[in-house]
UniProtKB/TrEMBL annotation:
Pathway: Cofactor biosynthesis; NAD(+) biosynthesis; quinolinate from iminoaspartate: step 1/1. Iminosuccinate binds at H102, S119, Y207, M208, N209, S228, H323, P324, E325, T340. InterPro entries: NadA, NadA_sf, Quinolinate_synth_A_type3. This is Quinolinate synthase. Keywords: 4Fe-4S, Cytoplasm, Iron, Iron-sulfur, Metal-binding, Pyridine nucleotide biosynthesis, Transferase. It is an enzyme of class 2 (transferase). One of its GO terms (biological process) is 'de novo' NAD+ biosynthetic process from L-aspartate. Belongs to the quinolinate synthase family. Type 3 subfamily. Binds 1 [4Fe-4S] cluster per subunit. Its cofactor is [4Fe-4S] cluster. Its main location: cytoplasm. The lineage of its organism: Bacteria, Bacillati, Actinomycetota, Actinomycetes, Micrococcales. It catalyses: iminosuccinate + dihydroxyacetone phosphate = quinolinate + phosphate + 2 H2O + H(+). PANTHER family: QUINOLINATE SYNTHASE, CHLOROPLASTIC (PTHR30573:SF0), QUINOLINATE SYNTHETASE A (PTHR30573).
């Protein structure tokens, strides 16, 4: 994957933040998942839970990082004041600073980013700036960890709000995964010994959306990382080395990818970490090809087949593209499924005005609609409900970390310890070395 696929944040568009503010003010009647989103995220940062947004119902792990109180000056500043403060701090820091903005980030933040992309593209972009002293990652915790893994040791990777985690990444914690590994060894025998065909019993594969601790586990145990763009290539790499795959944390990406490769659903048991042997019997595990961790993205889980049916009824000829983190039924009902970068490229490549119904995070869909006015582009889910944790990166936090840097302090640094970072890099390097058998297209249009 190359950084050239990144986009620059040139366009302003009506953001989710503005949409919610206008609903609260009575200027709009759009539905939202919670008008509490209009409050500053600092109102939620001291409480347990992910806060308003699509992950609101998910359970936040104890021990997840919390953010200390943001100084009053930033909480009370209006958007124009924060914008001016961010601009001034950026000008002072110059090339010492790189700001990265995830595709799903709110527009008020993305407008300040030097690069906009998915998590791996942004980590790669950070690598392209070895002389920048600070890399401010406007995304979520695991993304900042990945940037730290790929950047120089002396560079500081900063997450503006430490409460910006990822509910999906949090669904596979390292203790649960270690326990799963031990239980699999009880059923499958020693996991580090190859059989007569030279295959290991199981290869662990983790989605990029996982903690550095999980990536380190995978690296230590002969496994590999994947993205939503290269999941099939990575599974092919794993099947060349093992009888089966343990895939985490996202069950949907694992199931959708393996199903497209011809793995029967009966050979994809689910591993529920709260039950002995994941809730499976020994026979099901022995017969498995892909063991799916019981994790999901609360943003992409919101999409339904009924929404696709409605889009087709209301917009004859509509082209439906969904992210592979969506449930299998939704991917099956769509015209195409692919990563955020695939979605962006598919729209970019359309040469005639087209109606697109997109199944992914609302901020990205709104930005695409603004960037490609020749097409009609809308989100399959009519309810404005962004990723709760990504939404925690408010311009107030961005202004605060930049002004701290100007003052010579380094707030909210994300650092992965060497014992985790070394094997995690091994797992990432395996991913980079794994090559697809054909062209590097990340998802083929479904027939
Ligand atoms: S959109 Fe889903 S996977 Fe991405 S950061 Fe939010 S919760 Fe995590």
């Amino acid at each position: 994957m190359t950084v050239s696929t990144l986009t620059t944040p040139a366009l302003r568009d009506p953001s989710v933040d503005h949409a919610i503010q206008s609903i609260v003010a009575g200027a709009s009647t759009d539905a939202t998942c919670s008008t509490d989103l209009a409050a500053g995220p600092w109102d939620f940062d001291t409480r347990p839970g992910y806060g308003p947004g699509s992950s609101m119902g998910d359970v936040i792990p104890t021990g997840a990082p919390r953010q200390g109180e943001l100084p009053r000056a930033y909480r009370e500043a209006d958007e124009a004041q924060l914008h001016a403060r961010i601009q001034a701090a950026r000008a002072t820091l110059g090339d010492r600073l790189v700001i990265l903005g995830h595709f799903y980030q709110r527009e008020e933040v993305v407008r300040h980013a030097d690069y906009v992309g998915d998590s791996f593209q942004l980590a790669t972009a950070a690598k392209e700036h070895p002389n920048a002293e600070a890399i401010v990652f406007c995304g979520v915790h695991f993304m900042a960890e990945t940037a730290d893994l790929l950047s120089q040791p002396e560079q500081a990777v900063i997450l503006p709000n430490l409460a910006a985690g990822c509910s999906m990444a949090d669904m596979a914690d390292i203790d649960q995964v270690e326990e799963c590994w031990e239980q699999l060894a009880e059923v499958l025998g020693p996991l580090d010994q190859v059989d007569a065909d030279g295959l290991l019993p199981v290869i662990p594969v983790t989605y990029m959306n996982s903690s550095a601790a999980i990536k380190g586990f995978v690296g230590r145990n002969g496994g590999i990382v994947c993205t939503s763009s290269n999941a099939q290539t990575v599974l092919e790499w794993a099947f060349a080395r093992g009888r089966r795959v343990l895939f985490f944390p996202d069950q949907h990406l694992g199931r959708n990818t393996a199903k497209a490769m011809g793995v029967p659903l009966e050979q994809m048991p689910m591993w529920n970490p709260r039950r002995p042997f994941g809730g499976n019997d020994a026979e099901a595990l022995a017969d498995s090809r892909v063991i799916l961790w019981h994790g999901f993205c609360s943003v992409h889980r919101r999409f339904t087949v009924a929404q696709i049916d409605q889009a087709r009824a209301e917009h004859p000829g509509v082209r439906v593209i969904v992210h592979p983190e969506c449930p299998m039924e939704v991917v099956d009902a769509a015209d195409e499924a692919g990563s955020t970068d695939y979605i962006r490229r598919a729209i970019d490549a359309a040469t005639t005005p087209t109606t697109f119904a997109i199944g992914t995070e609302i901020n990205l869909v709104r930005r695409l609609a603004a960037q490609y006015p020749q097409h009609e582009i809308f989100c399959l889910d009519p309810v404005v409900c962004p990723c709760s944790t990504m939404y925690r990166i408010h311009p107030g936090y961005l202004a605060w970390v930049l002004e701290e840097l100007v003052a010579g302090r380094t707030p909210n640094r994300i650092q992965v310890s060497a014992d985790v970072a070394d094997p995690a890099r091994v797992a990432l390097e395996r991913m980079l070395a794994a090559k697809p058998p054909v062209a590097t297209q990340d998802a083929a249009p479904r027939a």
